[in-house]
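Researcher: We're teaching a course module on how sequence relates to structure. For the next exercise, students receive a sequence and then see the predicted structure as tokens, so they can try to spot secondary structure elements on their own. Here is the exercise chain.
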Amino acid sequence: MKKNHHYTNAMAVLFVILLLFSSCTAPKSRIQGSDKWEKDIVDFEKLDQTEKYADNSILFVGSSSIRLWSTLKDELSPYPVIQRGFGGSKSPDVARYIKRIVYPHQFSAVVIFIANDISGSPKDLTPKESAYNFREIVKSIRAKYQKQPVFIVEITPSQSRWKQWPQIQVTNSKLKALCKKEKNLYFIETARSFLNDQSEPRKELFRDDYLHLNREGYKIWGNLIKREIDKRLKAKG
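Model: And here is the predicted structure for the students to work with:
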């Protein structure tokens, strides 16, 4: 009887330890990065072999808002840029491919914008899951590049995802908190510039889908992003 009693106590202690360990473990995404972006990544790798990029370029990584930014070179001038946005990618997709996107390059800074984790889909990530993925992306970058500034751009409020805006705001707050904790990691606030006096999205800054920025929207976005890059790179000397 004593042996059984000791065994029961030992199992109870083990259960408590496992419970504590699981509660301290970082949250993981409910979805894994998709391999449907493989062609896009291979196309990037082909560009890496044929194009020459300046070592002081600003590397832009993320989803379709980065891919569709046709005036990026003009708006970030005189900084040279490397543009690596793909489709409707989510943070797990960028995390999956980040080394293949980033590691071939030398650059003075990285700018990350990913806005599809919360879109009203049943497969949406939670803000905690999204922040976890961003942290993993930054960790992968830091494995090779310790000194270059990394910027995370605030997710933009848009009419097409206005119902999701409260959850997106939570995600933004977690990303901002992450940037405060990590050295040389900066959060670029942009949302206020895309809201009107009624605190609703400024429709005139978006394309017909009310999700992606139009030319005027990109001008505002570019100015905000460039201002923060100027501030940090000039401070570095």
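Model: If you want an answer key for the exercise: The CA atoms of residues 48 and 104 lie 7 Å apart. Residues 10-26 have pLDDT under 50 and may be disordered.
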